[in-house]
Design brief:
The complex is a heterodimer of chains A (142) and B (400).
Chain A: E1 6-9, E2 14-15, E3 22-28, E4 34-35, E5 50-54, E6 58-67, E7 78-85, E8 90-95, E9 111-120, E10 125-134
Chain B: E1 5-12, H1 23-38, E2 47-51, H2 59-67, E3 74-77, H3 83-96, E4 102-109, H4 150-164, H5 170-184, H6 198-202, E5 206-208, E6 211-212, E7 222-230, H7 231-234, H8 239-244, E8 246-255, H9 270-283, E9 292-294, H10 300-309, H11 318-323, H12 340-343, H13 348-363, E10 377-384, E11 388-396
Helix pairs in contact in B: 1-2, 3-13, 4-10, 5-10
Classes of the chains: A mainly beta (142), B alpha/beta (400).
């Protein structure tokens, strides 16, 4: 196969073409509640004025599991993490660049969004996923 | 305030891989058993509610064609793993509203014969990527953006509790399964009836850390049903029916209130705490008054966090409580003496009625080898992920 001719984010709240890869969520203009998915009204306060919001690239792991037998066969064991971004928005994704074992997860270490290719379609478009990796720059808030 | 509603009939099928019995046959056995137990006929029932997660719509009316079509209102209900409890509460509300004085609630699931419609996992390659759904995904995201599968969600919920509380880890979660598998050895209705050692549980195949296979509920089939009656009507019934009647002192349902984390990862804690606190208040009792609890241990991690959510242990003390065997059948407050979902089994729609059957049977003093002696007050709890929570508090008839 030739070099990919285009890329597409694996979900539409991952932004690849505006500086460093980051997530964009939706924020209630009334109460400030922020979420990744699209809501017709705010699930917290019922407010109807929702604006797009660029989300921080760093956060901390609140919970995790290592899926072993339960993992999709074409993916294999993986580490699922719930991350609280520095602005308080929660995101679920994989912890990457670690062995898929419980001992590899350190909830005291800040994490940062990273991207990687996750598949290519018949027209050569490459899908780009995001995950979290330990933040060696250490810029997350404690 | 309206009068209490009482249980006068209860029945459940054994939970098994019922390869030769469909959902209608399982349903009919539970319904007819509950009617017989109450000394009632289907013609006495003024309302019916039927809970199932996987059977097609108007399934309840198909059950009526097996046990008696009398033209009464029938609610087909669907609320994930809280489905059965939702059916019970639907009948209870109809009686409380004065629309009926007798009703039948059924929960059922046949998970062996037809495979549940779990989401397919397509490989990542091929065709052309097209953004779909509200998140614009171009491929299934399970395993790429973490996990949304039940066993993964409840594993993460347990690890969140472990992160926040010292002395909670793999071993404490495994001890929950050790207890429930030990309890089910006394329950002939349970899908598993053999003990597992702690070592066997901890060295078994890992499903999603920290839950190994014996720490996770199996796939199984079964049905359970209860007959409910208004207090006014109960007073007119035979003394023997009144003697065995069990009062529903609280029936509470909650959905998940907003929490910032709940949109990314289901929060099973907050709505359980809300439901438990409301149930204690309505029943006018506290956790110290309970003689037994059947709670929603779909995975060992879930049971441990619910000790705390249901106020059964000291705040933050769930790990320490299982370490000192508090929830064992001979401990301070027996939890899941049926074996729980981990060992008794978890036919989705049946579960929220089966736990009411279990507590009712103990309060009547009819639980045989697994009887908790002198039980007077019990609690049931279920969670349907997404989420729905139901808590019931049941009490033995005074003088019973």
């Amino acid at each position: 196969m030739s070099e990919p001719t285009a890329t597409i984010p694996v979900v539409d709240y991952l932004v690849l073409d505006d500086g460093p890869a980051h997530l964009v969520g939706n924020r209630c203009e009334d109460c400030g509640a922020t979420f990744l998915d699209r809501h017709n009204a705010c699930p917290n306060c019922g407010g109807r004025r929702i604006e797009r919001a660029r989300l921080p690239e760093t956060g901390r792991i609140e919970s995790y599991t290592v899926l072993v037998r339960g993992a999709p066969k074409h993916i294999g064991p993986f580490v699922s993490v719930l991350v609280r971004l520095d602005d308080g928005t929660y995101v679920k994704a994989n912890l990457i660049d670690v062995d898929p074992v419980a001992d590899a997860v350190d909830t005291d270490r800040p994490v940062r969004i990273v991207t990687y290719p996750v598949g290519t379609d018949d027209s050569g478009t490459e899908a780009i996923a995001f995950g979290f990796a330990y933040d060696t720059e250490g810029s997350a808030q404690p | 305030m309206s009068e209490d509603v009482w249980i006068i009939g209860a029945s459940m099928t054994p939970i098994r891989r019922h390869r030769d019995r469909d959902a209608l046959d399982l349903s009919a056995e539970a319904c007819l058993g509950a009617l017989d137990d109450a000394g009632m006929s289907i013609r006495d029932m003024g309302v019916m509610a039927v809970g199932t997660q996987f059977e097609p719509y108007t399934f309840g009316q198909q059950v009526q064609k097996q046990i008696g079509q009398t033209g009464i209102p029938l609610y087909n209900v669907h609320n994930a793993c809280a489905t059965g409890a939702t059916a019970v509460r639907s009948v209870l509300m109809e009686i409380k509203a004065g629309e009926a004085d007798l009703g039948l609630a059924l929960g059922v699931e046949q998970m062996t014969a037809g495979s549940p419609p779990y989401r397919s996992m397509k490989p990542a390659e091929g065709n052309e990527f097209t953004a779909e759904g509200r998140d614009g995904h171009v491929m299934p995201t399970e395993g790429i953006l973490g996990t949304g599968q039940m066993f993964g969600v409840f594993a993460q919920t347990g690890m969140d509790y472990a992160r926040q509380h010292d002395g909670v880890g793999f071993e404490q979660f495994a001890k929950v399964a050790e207890k429930n598998h030990a309890h089910s050895t006394l329950n002939p209705l349970a899908q598993y009836q053999r003990p597992y050692s702690l070592e066997e549980i901890m060295s078994a195949e890992m499903l999603a850390y920290p839950n190994t296979l014996p720490m996770s509920c199996p796939t199984g089939d079964g049905a359970a049903a209860v007959v409910l009656v208004s207090e006014e009507r109960l007073r007119t019934l035979d003394p023997e029916v009144r003697r065995r009647a069990v009062k529903i002192s609280a029936s509470v349902m909650t959905s998940d209130p907003y929490d910032p984390s709940g949109l990314a990862h289901p929060d099973v804690n907050t709505l359980t705490r809300l439901a438990a606190d409301q149930a204690y208040e309505r029943a006018g009792i506290g956790p110290e008054d309970l003689d037994l609890v059947e709670l929603h241990d779909c995975f060992a991690t879930a049971e441990l966090v619910h000790y705390d959510n249901l106020r059964l242990c000291e705040p933050g003390g769930a790990g320490e409580w299982i370490d000192r065997r508090g929830p064992w059948r001979d401990g301070e407050l027996p939890v899941n003496v049926s074996g729980g979902l981990i060992s008794k089994g978890h036919p989705i729609g049946a579960t929220g009625v089966a736990n009411i059957y279990e507590v009712t049977t103990h309060l009547r003093g009819e639980a045989g080898d697994r009887q908790i002696e002198g039980a007077r007050v019990g609690m049931t709890h279920v969670i349907g992920l997404g989420s729905a929570c139901a808590v019931h508090i049941l009490e033995r008839a005074a003088g019973g």
